[in-house]
């Protein structure tokens, strides 16, 4: 896994350099402290998929190019078979699979996300990113915390929210939760 992370961060660094954007400028565009962005780019800290999406937007490339090193080629449709999405495990609390990696010029990024259960009392890891997010629970029970609200979503439940607000998810009941996340 470390090798995959290194490949992604190397692509980010190379594309940032080619684009003539300094580390300081990229951090400013992402509204991050320079040291946080540097840790992400150097692979020293987990980079949230949402930050990777923002970086792709800043660099004017498809997120799939950052994840795979390949330019998406599909323009009319793209099929992703069960469990065959492009792995984007960018945060230790979540396992992402991009399920439209080969579709060019997407207006949203869809992922299947797995969240493993944590011991009782473990704090929920929070993050935020520009835009909106839609999450639909496929399996298990998911605790969602957003803007001082704590919600419990069961299989078949969904939530749509402004992802600029800090939010986090946690599997409940000692079982892995799996959900469809669409980042807009």
Shape: globular
Biggest sheet statistics = 6 strands, antiparallel
Strand order of the largest sheet: 1-2-3-9-4-7
Query: What letter string, H or E per element, gives the SSE order?
Result: HHHHHEEEEEEEEE
Number of strands: 9
Structural class: alpha+beta
* Helical stretch tally: 5
Q: What distance lies between the first and last C-alpha atoms, to the nearest angstrom?
A: 27 Å
What percent strand? 25-35%
Describe this structure as you would to a colleague.
The protein is α+β, with helices and mostly antiparallel strands. It has five helices and nine strands. The strands form two sheets. A six-stranded antiparallel sheet has the order 1-2-3-9-4-7. Strand 5 (142-146) and strand 6 form a beta hairpin. Helix 2 crosses helix 3 (34-41). The protein is globular, with a radius of gyration of 16 Å. The two termini are 27 Å apart. 28% of the residues are buried.
Short structural description:
By secondary structure, the chain is α+β, with helices and mostly antiparallel strands. The protein is 27% helix and 26% strand. The chain starts with a helix and ends with a strand.
List keywords for this structure.
184 residues; globular; 26% strand; three-stranded antiparallel sheet; six-stranded antiparallel sheet; alpha+beta; 5 helices
């Amino acid at each position: 896994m470390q090798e995959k992370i290194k490949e992604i961060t190397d692509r980010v660094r190379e594309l940032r350099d080619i684009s003539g954007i300094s580390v300081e400028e990229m951090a400013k565009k992402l509204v991050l402290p320079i040291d946080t962005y540097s840790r992400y780019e150097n692979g020293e800290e987990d980079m949230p998929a949402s930050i990777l999406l923002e970086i792709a937007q800043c660099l004017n490339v498809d997120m799939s190019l950052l994840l795979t090193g390949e330019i998406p080629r599909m323009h009319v449709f793209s099929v992703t078979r069960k469990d065959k999405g492009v792995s984007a495990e960018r945060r230790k609390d979540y396992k992402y699979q991009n399920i439209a990696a080969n579709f060019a010029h997407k207006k949203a990024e869809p992922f299947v996300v797995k969240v493993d259960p944590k011991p009782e009392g473990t704090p929920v890891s929070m993050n935020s990113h520009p835009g909106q997010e839609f999450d639909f629970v496929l399996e298990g029970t998911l605790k969602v915390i957003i803007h001082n609200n704590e919600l419990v979503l069961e299989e078949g439940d969904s939530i749509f929210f402004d992802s600029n607000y800090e939010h986090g998810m946690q599997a409940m009941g000692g079982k892995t939760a799996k959900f469809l996340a669409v980042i807009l």
